[in-house]
Amino acid sequence: MSNPNNSDQAKLRAQQELSKLEGQPQMSEDERHAGNVKRGLTAATHNPNVTDAGKKQARDKLEAMGEKPDQPGD
């Protein structure tokens, strides 16, 4: 926004986009953490280096979180 090489029109557009983003609700730290955990558990269920017991444990945890994990394909 303070770059003198940007046109006034570009600065205005950037300010409008920032204003739109500021008005949107932000995810809480807990929501963000829960999403990261779900993605990690889902990744574990697809990782060939994870044991079958580990994959089952990840699926069980996903189910406890209210998710419907993919069933094993291997």
Question: What's a quick, concise take on this entry?
Answer:
The protein is mainly alpha-helical and 74 residues long. It is 62% helix and 0% strand.
Query: How would you classify the helix and strand content by structural class?
Result: mainly alpha
Shape: elongated
Helix content: 55-70%
Give the beta-strand count: 0
Largest sheet: none
The overall pLDDT, averaged over residues, is 88
Order of helices and strands: HHH
Taken together, the total number of domains comes to: 1
End-to-end Cα distance: 52 Å
Low-confidence blocks of residues: none
Strand content: under 5%
What is the alpha-carbon Rg in Å?
A: 21 Å
How many alpha or pi helices? 3
Pfam family, one: Con-6
Protein name: Conidiation protein Con-6
Region (Disordered): 1-74
Biased composition (Basic and acidic residues): 53-74
